[in-house]
C-alpha cells in the first residue's frame, strides 16, 4: 500500500512539473509572437506612411 502511495505521489509530481513546463513554454511562445507581430506592424506603419498622398481617401490604421 505504501508503495502505491509513493508511486502516486511521484506520478503527480511528474505530471505537475510537465504541465508547468508546457505552460511556461506556451507563455514564452506567446510573448515572442506578440513581439514579432508588434515589430511587423511597426514596419508596415512606416511603409504605409510613404503612400499617404495616394491613399488620402482611405483611412488605414495598424494596431497591435
Describe the structure.
- The protein is mainly α.
- It has a domain at 1-34.
- Helix content is 73%, strand content 0%.
- It has one helix at 2-48.
- The longest helix has 47 residues, at 2-48.
- 0% of the residues are buried.
- The model has no long low-confidence stretch (mean pLDDT 81).
Report how far the terminal alpha carbons are from each other. Answer: 56 Å
Strand content: under 5%
* Number of helical elements: 1
Runs with pLDDT <50, length 5+? none
Mean pLDDT: 81
Number of strands: 0
Shape, per Cα inertia axes: rod-shaped
Integer-rounded radius of gyration: 24 Å
Helix/strand-derived category reads mainly alpha
Helix content: over 70%
Give the helices and strands as they follow along the chain. H
Descriptive keywords:
64 residues; mainly alpha
List the helices and strands and how they pair.
Layout: H1 2-48
How would you summarize this macromolecular structure in one to three sentences?
With 64 residues, the chain is an all-alpha fold. Helices cover 73% and strands 0% of the residues.
Amino acid at each position: 500500500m505504501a508503495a502505491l502511495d509513493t508511486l502516486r505521489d511521484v506520478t503527480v509530481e511528474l505530471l505537475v512539473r510537465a504541465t508547468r513546463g508546457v505552460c511556461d513554454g506556451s507563455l514564452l511562445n506567446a510573448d515572442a509572437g506578440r513581439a514579432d507581430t508588434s515589430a511587423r506592424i511597426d514596419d508596415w506603419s512606416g511603409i504605409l506612411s510613404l503612400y499617404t498622398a495616394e491613399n488620402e481617401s482611405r483611412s488605414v490604421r495598424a494596431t497591435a
